[in-house]
C-alpha cells in the first residue's frame, strides 16, 4: 500500500497546482492538497486491488434435495 500511496502522491501531487490552482489556492497549499489526495487515492486503489486479488471464491451451491425425497427413502 505504501507504493500505491507514493505513486498517487507523485501523479496527483505534481498536478495539484493545475487541479486546485484554478480555485485561487496558494501554490504550496495546492501541492499539499494534491499530495494528500494522491496518497488517499493510491491507498484506496491498492487496497481495492488487493481485496479483489485475495478474495475467496463463493461457496459451492448446496445440493438440491427434492421435496418428496423422504418418501422415496423408505
Summarize the structure in short:
The chain is mostly helical.
Strand content: under 5%
What is the arithmetic mean of pLDDT?
Answer: 81
> Given the helix and strand composition, which structural class is it?
mainly alpha
What is the β-strand count? 0
Distance between the termini: 60 Å
* Tally of DSSP helical segments: 4
Radius of gyration: 25 Å
Low-pLDDT windows of residues: none
Question: What kind of sheet is the major sheet?
Answer: none
Order of helix and strand elements from N to C terminus: HHHH
Share of residues in helices:
55-70%
Overall spatial form: rod-shaped
Write up what this structure looks like:
By secondary structure, this protein is mainly α. It has a domain at 2-52. It is 66% helix and 0% strand. Helix 1 runs antiparallel to helix 3 (27-53). The radius of gyration is 25 Å and the shape is rod-shaped. 14% of the residues are buried. The mean pLDDT is 81.
